Amino acid sequence: MLKFTAFCVACFVFLLGHPSMSVAASDASAREQKVDFSGPHLIPVTLDISLSGWRFATDDKPKAVILAFTPYSPQGLIDRAVFFASHDYVFLVVSSRGRGDSEGTFQPFSAADVADTAKVIQWAAAQPWSDGQVAMWGGSYVGYSQWAALAQLLAPLKTIAPAAAVYPGVDFPAYNNIRFNYSFQWLQALQGRGDWFSLAFRDAIWTERVVQLRRQGLPTTSLTKYTGSNNVIARQWLNHPTLDSYWQQAVPTDTALQQTRLPVLTITGYFDADQRGALAHHQRYISAGNEQRQNATLLLGPWDHAGTRTPTLQQAGIMVEPNSVLDLNALHLSWYDWVLKQKIQPPSLRSGIHYFLMGTNEWRYLSQMPEADVAWHLHPRSDNSFSAISPGLLSTADGPAAEFSYTYQPQQAALTNPVALTQQANEQRDVKAINGDGLVFVSELFTESMDLVGAPKLQLNISVNAVDTDIHVLLEEIMADGETLRLSFDMQRLRHRDGLNKSALLQPGRLYPVSFDSFTFIGKRIARGSRLRLSLHSNPPLYLEHNFTGPEDVSLQTAQNTNTIDVTIIQTEQQPNILWLPIK
């Protein structure tokens, strides 16, 4: 690994606010005053459907086009559009089908996005105010739509820069096939052609809805009634509980990625709810071939979802270090200038992984994804109690033969977890609530600091007395003052233990090896005097679907006829349970 301290100062200084930037502020303001907009431009995508686009530019001279393809209100991107347009680009905001002034019916995360982004790129490249080059910008859905554009080989498309990109069927509307209750809020907010965020995202109302649903033991399908005109979409999503062709048609095929040679800048954060999707896209791209890997740059900071576009000192409810607060407009501009205007590529954006190491206030660099290769083992307590108050031991020493077990009642578990619809980086109420219905393991105090960089993995040997259950796993740092930081997490619905595209019920009482191999990436210096805490349980927060452990599709299950569930983790010398950590 390359130590990044001096490199950070030399190469990221302009992103952190160099004094020369303030001198140029008045010039920037003058440039922005010259930006005008026009529209709606009608962009035909089928014989009977045209999409609506709004163009931002300082004049009509041919320039490279930066495209944002979005289901959200174009007005939300005005500041970003004006910034790029003031730097000699055309910024084009296009509304997806059925949204804004675009015709057709809203079809989120579908083959329509794949086809429509291609048509829009070809249209933009052919306009007299375009020089024939198109790039893309945006985060979340607007990040996903950039990957959708790679499904077809398009000569005008020169680069994409997706931030916090959703991967349909992987991290939204379900995470590892465990559905987000938030997805129903999202569909409620995007009814019709306008945005209803202020009404749909009243979390107190949705918290009460989910609580009542669980108290009454009703199925997830009951939440579709709140999605209004998007009810059909909600039910379509529920009808596809695995990563099947319905979801796969919304992203590029392996063949398409193997034929793509574009520079790709991927941005995500340690506390970004779509880190899983962003990294899945990135991993597929670099796995497509050596040229793709050499063209891929990954930037990871201590950011939440919104912070992947506008970092601030407060992220996910905690204060982060000042050098993590980059000017991402400036970063994107340098990326586009390199690709579209043949300027020098900034070393801070060379291919590979640029990550912020929390606890050092430094940016670091890796040429490839680090391996989780340091084994930590589970050790029992004599009283077989594994709560936050009396945890088992997490240690690098080999664990003895043992059984670790917990018991829960599905309907009660639905109401046990105190975490509602949002989760902060220092949240620990869910772990403290574990009392016989989960397992907690804590390490000894660290006598020296340790850098945790990458994604952990966990191998467990699990037996359940039911045909299915969900298991939520969390790794935290407990600091000397008792405060905690959620470092990385994973979750599994055990019927999908062999892959997101597969479903096989458990045989009750049978022992299964289960790999938790989709933990989130973290870059954190674990401080001297801190400890690590590993917890696992089956008590879902309110933002996730609840599994009543029956054989039916989980969205159809009710609390009727649910039994007490026993989860047992068995450890032998031949079959150890191991937490693999990426320690540098």
TrEMBL record:
Annotated GO MF terms: dipeptidyl-peptidase activity
Q: Secretion signal: which residues?
A: 1-24
Which organism is this protein's natural source?
Rheinheimera sp. BAL341
Q: Print the organism lineage.
A: Bacteria, Pseudomonadati, Pseudomonadota, Gammaproteobacteria, Chromatiales
- Describe the location of the Xaa-Pro dipeptidyl-peptidase C-terminal domain by residue ranges: 333-570
Residue runs in coiled coils: none
Instruction: Give the matching InterPro entries.
Output: AB_hydrolase_fold, CocE/Ser_esterase, Galactose-bd-like_sf, Xaa-Pro-like_dom, Xaa-Pro_dipept_C
Q: Where are the transmembrane segments?
A: none
UniProt keyword list? Hydrolase, Signal
Q: Which SMART domains match?
A: PepX_C (SM00939)
The answer on whether this UniProt entry bears the keyword Signal reads yes
> Which Pfam families does the record associate with it?
Peptidase_S15, PepX_C
What is the name of the protein in this document? Glutaryl 7-ACA acylase - Bacillus laterosporus
